Structure formats: structure tokens, C-alpha cells
């Protein structure tokens, strides 16, 4: 790939992914794109940045032509909790934005499009334990509906036009750098920050809520590994399960107390509990491991130690 456009580069995953890609492909070969949120100085100063409205196909097309883009990574999305507050916005950004990216990629004969999916594609009727790669997809959120539709649309472009479209179903992503915004798994980041700042946390899901999670270094590795995989080896394309860890909030608390013994927690479940209850507590990622060699590196305690160390540095405490 000569030039990669990362749309949604100011978000939790996009911001770190863009910087990682610039290390691999060179700063000038990875164009960051965002909408309204101001990018960090690190993102802005390390390479080109463009304002792109993903729901406006001409906005995407102009940047593609300007920078001679031959691959698009579309990280722009309205997440689960925010999407329930504004379902029409979630559909517009998540679906029309994806369609625009695919159409631009098709017309300009690009080498690759990567668009992430999510465990939100699953629903209450899906087997919760070791959720299969091929299974029932009946989500209960608009975010989940758009992700199922996005997987199908991406696969359609592979079959119909021969476009190289790839995607993976992210679990909850945990990072100390850029905070998440509007997701059901946001508690898994907030708990670490509040542990450092206040020694306590009020959680919006129950103690026994168990979900698949992944530390950001593994998230970046999974994304880049899939990008770089040989297309000929892929039997699946836009819907890879990827696993790393699965743990309950109570298990997170136990892990944190190994490093902050006095940490306290209170549970006050809200509307996000119903969303969490509709998702798996673990996934079967055999297809990803066989087709492109996926293998995570971090477990819960290793992640907890690294999170707390880096948050303390970030907050100067």
C-alpha cells in the first residue's frame, strides 16, 4: 500500500492505530482524517491531517484524490450507548459512511478497505460462551444492527466487485491513551482511571457482568495483522471473531486490588446493563488464528499493571 487514509483517526482506536501505522509505513503515507474533534498534537504533528465527513462521499473523494489514497480504514462510528440515544445518527454514520467508503474504494480501484465490526453483532439468542464464528446474529441495538449490516455489505463488495474488504469483531477495548466515547464497555477504562484518582469507582453494570475484552496493544496488533495477511488465505473477510481476555467486573476489581489494595467499588447498573447482557462472555476465534495467525499477548493482570503504571504517569500521581 502506498497511501492509507484513516477515517475516524481521533477516536479511541483510530488515534493510536494511525500513529502505529505511521511507524510502519512512514508519516507521510498515513493520512489521518477526523470530523469535529480536535486531534492531539502528537497526531497532528506526525503526519497529514484532513477534515472528512464520512457521510459526504465528495468529502472522502476529495481527500482520496489529493493524497493518492489506495487503502481506507474506516474507524468512524457511533457506538452502542450513544447509538441508542440517536439511532438515526448511528445508521447514517455507520452505514452510509461505510457505503461511501466502499464506493470510493471501488471506483478508484483501491487495494484494501478495512472496517471493524464488533461483538455488538451478537444478541440474546447467540450462544454466550465461546461464541462461534458462524452463529445467530440478532443484535438488540442500532449499533449492532449497523455492524451486522456492515459485515454483509463488505462481504458483498468482495463477491460482487472483487474488492479486498476486511473486518474483525472487536471486543471491549481498554487503553490509557484516548478515552472511549459512548460505548457499553467504557467502564473497563473508567475503572482504572478512578482507581488511580480516587481509589474508588461506581460501576454502571453488575459485578458478575462478564464480557470479552482486549488491551489496546493487542487491538493494534490484531488490526495490522489482518491488514497485512495474504488475501488468498482468507476464507472469511469482514467478520472475524478475535479474542484476548474475558473477565467479569469483579475479576477486574480483584486484579486492581493486587496493585491498589484499598480500592473500593459500588454497583449502580443502568440502561447499559441490558446491552451488556445481550453480548457474549467469550468468543471462539479459531478462524482468525488459522487464517491469519492471530495470537494475543496480554492477560488481565499484565494489562492492569501496565494500565495503572501509565495512568499514573499521565496524571502525574
Kindly describe this structure.
This protein has 317 residues and is of the alpha/beta class. The protein has 2 domains: 4-171 and 214-241, 3-Layer(aba) Sandwich (Rossmann fold); 173-213 and 245-315, UDP-galactose 4-epimerase, domain 1 (Alpha-Beta Complex), CATH 3.90.25.10. The chain has helices at residues 12-25, 41-45, 57-67, 80-85, 87-107, 142-161, 187-197, 216-228, 249-257, 272-277, 286-292, 300-315; strands spanning 4-7, 30-34, 49-51, 71-74, 112-114, 117-118, 165-166, 168-170, 172-174, 200-203, 210-215, 240-241, 245-248, 264-267. The strands form 4 sheets. It has a 6-stranded parallel beta sheet, with helices on both faces. Helix 2 links the parallel strand 2 (30-34) and strand 3 (49-51). Helix 1 (12-25) packs across helix 8 and helix 5 packs parallel to helix 6 (142-161).
Task: Summarize this structure as a short list of keywords or feature phrases.
317 residues; alpha/beta; Rossmann fold; UDP-galactose 4-epimerase, domain 1; 2 domains; six-stranded parallel beta sheet; three-stranded parallel beta sheet
CATH-wise, what's the superfamily of the largest domain?
NAD(P)-binding Rossmann-like Domain
Count, helices = 12
Q: Give the low-pLDDT segments.
A: none
In the CATH hierarchy, what is the architecture of the largest domain at level 2? 3-Layer(aba) Sandwich
Widest β-sheet, arrangement of strands: 3-2-1-4-5-7
Layout of strands and helices, then pairs:
Blueprint: E1 4-7, H1 12-25, E2 30-34, H2 41-45, E3 49-51, H3 57-67, E4 71-74, H4 80-85, H5 87-107, E5 112-114, E6 117-118, H6 142-161, E7 165-166, E8 168-170, E9 172-174, H7 187-197, E10 200-203, E11 210-215, H8 216-228, E12 240-241, E13 245-248, H9 249-257, E14 264-267, H10 272-277, H11 286-292, H12 300-315
Parallel strand pairs: 1-2, 1-4, 2-3, 4-5, 5-7, 6-8, 8-12, 9-11, 10-14
Antiparallel strand pairs: 11-13
Helix pairs in contact: 1-8, 3-5, 5-6, 7-12
Amino acid at each position: 500500500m502506498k497511501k492509507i487514509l484513516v477515517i475516524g483517526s481521533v477516536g479511541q482506536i483510530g488515534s493510536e492505530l494511525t500513529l502505529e501505522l505511521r511507524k510502519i509505513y512512514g508519516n507521510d503515507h498515513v493520512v489521518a482524517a477526523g470530523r469535529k474533534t480536535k486531534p492531539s498534537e502528537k497526531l497532528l504533528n506526525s503526519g497529514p491531517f484532513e477534515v472528512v465527513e464520512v457521510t459526504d462521499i465528495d468529502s472522502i473523494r476529495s481527500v482520496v484524490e489529493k493524497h493518492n489514497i489506495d487503502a481506507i480504514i474506516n474507524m468512524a462510528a457511533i457506538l452502542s450507548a450513544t447509538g441508542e440515544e440517536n439511532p438515526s445518527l448511528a445508521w447514517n454514520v455507520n452505514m452510509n459512511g461505510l457505503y461511501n467508503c466502499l464506493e470510493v474504494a471501488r471506483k478508484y480501484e483501491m487495494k484494501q478497505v478495512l472496517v471493524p465490526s464488533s461483538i455488538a453483532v451478537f444478541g440474546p439468542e447467540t450462544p454466550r460462551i465461546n461464541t462461534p464464528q458462524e452463529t445467530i446474529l440478532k443484535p438488540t441495538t442500532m449499533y449492532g444492527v449497523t455492524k451486522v449490516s456492515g459485515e454483509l455489505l463488505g462481504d458483498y463488495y468482495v463477491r460482487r466487485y472483487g474488492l479486498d474488504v476486511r473486518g474483525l469483531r472487536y471486543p471491549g477495548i481498554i487503553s490509557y491513551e484516548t478515552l472511549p466515547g459512548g460505548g457499553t464497555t467504557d467502564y473497563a477504562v473508567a475503572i482504572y482511571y478512578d482507581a488511580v484518582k480516587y481509589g474508588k469507582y461506581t460501576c454502571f453494570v453488575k459485578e458478575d457482568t462478564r464480557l470479552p475484552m482486549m488491551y489496546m496493544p493487542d487491538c493494534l496488533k490484531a488490526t495490522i495483522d489482518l491488514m497485512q495477511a495474504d488475501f488468498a488465505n482468507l476464507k472469511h473477510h469482514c467478520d472475524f471473531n478475535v479474542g484476548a481476555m474475558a473477565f467479569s467486573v469483579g475479576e477486574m476489581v480483584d486484579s486492581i486490588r493486587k496493585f491498589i489494595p484499598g480500592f473500593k467499588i459500588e454497583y449502580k447498573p443502568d440502561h447499559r446493563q441490558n446491552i451488556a447482557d445481550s453480548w457474549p462472555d467469550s468468543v471462539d476465534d479459531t478462524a482468525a488464528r488459522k487464517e491469519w495467525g492471530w495470537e494475543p499477548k496480554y492477560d488481565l493482570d499484565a494489562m492492569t499493571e501496565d494500565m495503572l503504571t501509565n495512568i499514573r504517569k499521565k496524571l502525574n500521581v
